[in-house]
Write a structure and sequence with these properties.
Keywords: Flavoprotein, FMN. Its cofactor is FMN. By secondary structure, the protein is mainly beta. It is about 10% helix and about 35% strand. The chain has one domain: Electron Transport, Fmn-binding Protein, Chain A (Pnp Oxidase, Chain A). The strands form four sheets. Strands 1-4-5 form a three-stranded antiparallel β-sheet, with no helix packed on it.
């Protein structure tokens, strides 16, 4: 699983094309694959965040089990050094401004990064 950034909007949209069975959507999109350390499957080279997941559970939902909700267990994480930093508590943190995540809102509607706000949580 990947977190695409705004610069990849057109390319990741191309991966939604209806293609013949056993045909990779990566090649025609212009994206490329690279090995993910300690994980059997490759990751998208251009993505700044990749999560290596294994199947945890499948849950049928809807009338007549029309859809399936997939739960995965994250076993490996890739974070580009360009977007990673160490916070004041010494913890690894992803800088959301540098990541500039792309959000799919449904259909062909996406949200590009806008204002990012910090709201303190109660103690």
């Amino acid at each position: 699983m990947h977190i695409a950034d705004a610069s990849l909007a057109e390319q990741v949209t191309q991966t939604a094309a209806s293609l013949p069975r056993n045909y990779s959507e990566v090649e025609p999109s212009g994206l490329s694959m690279t090995k993910m350390t300690k994980f059997p499957l490759p990751r998208i080279s251009q993505a700044k965040v990749a999560l290596g997941c294994e199947l945890y559970q499948l849950q049928s939902i809807g009338d007549n089990a029309a859809q399936t909700l997939v739960f995965g267990r994250v076993t490996q994480v890739y974070i580009d050094d360009e977007i990673a930093c160490i916070n004041d508590n010494g913890r690894l943190r992803v800088d959301p401004q540098k990541l500039a995540p792309l959000a799919r809102l449904g259909g062909d509607i996406y949200q590009l990064p806008g204002d990012i706000v910090t709201i303190k949580r109660p103690k």
